[in-house]
Amino acid sequence: MPIAATIRICPFVINAQEIEWRITPGLTDYAAALREMERRAADVAAGQARELVWLLEHPPVYTAGTSADAAELIDPRFPVVNAGRGGRYTYHGPGQRIGYLVLNLAQRGRDVRCFVHAVEGWVIAALGEMGIAAFRAPGRIGIWTRDSSGTEAKIGAIGVRVRRWVSMHGFSVNLSPDLSHFGGIVPCGIADYPVTSAEALGAEHGFETFDAAMALTFNAFLESLTCARENEA
């Protein structure tokens, strides 16, 4: 049986810790999502809410990180929003799975570099469950694979913010977006490599399949954060 078919029927077995797993159907306004995420992060920091993994999809928008260079905004054909996360310009839109991670790093290890590395590994593992060979690229943050021509291409972006040791933002993965929409920016400041998607690679690209793969590999992601706790010891 193909892996994609197998993970569709796997139950979402999430770590026994009290972490809310939320999947929002349809398109969620970016600014509204940002407000919700910031509220939740404040509540988590205050011990008044559970941690959150939030999977959603946005209408077309360009987001600017704290290192965004105006010269890399080539054609602002969609709204441009200051995201408050690290990184430069990126695109979000239909067909792209967004994952917002509101996690208490005070409990999981105060190491932002370890956290980003673990998020990369989680997305890579999930894509592997879908039959997509993804990898890290030295000196280039994000999730990479090879397109049909064998060229290294970006399939996912990582951008986080940490306030009071609670994380915000997270990752985006191109399942079936309109790749031409990335042409309005220099994605993440990297002009020398193309972007690609699961659809362009001929792989299974449904949200249901990807979400199931993320759930299947979630506990391993949490366990990978032990490097941060070990660094604190």
How would you describe this protein?
- The chain is built from 7 helices and 10 strands.
- Helix 4 packs across helix 5 and helix 4 (112-129) runs antiparallel to helix 6.
- The protein has a single domain (3-228), classed as BirA Bifunctional Protein, domain 2.
- The chain is α+β, with helices and mostly antiparallel strands and 233 residues long.
- Mean pLDDT is 88; it is low at 1-13.
- Strand 1 (19-23), helix 2 (30-45) and strand 2 (51-56) form a beta-alpha-beta unit.
What is the general shape? globular
Strand portion = 25-35%
Question: How far apart, in Å, are the first and last alpha carbons?
Answer: 44 Å
Cα gyration radius (Å): 17 Å
List keywords for this structure.
three-stranded mixed β-sheet; globular; BirA Bifunctional Protein, domain 2; disordered N terminus; about 230 residues; seven-stranded mixed β-sheet; about 25% strand; alpha+beta
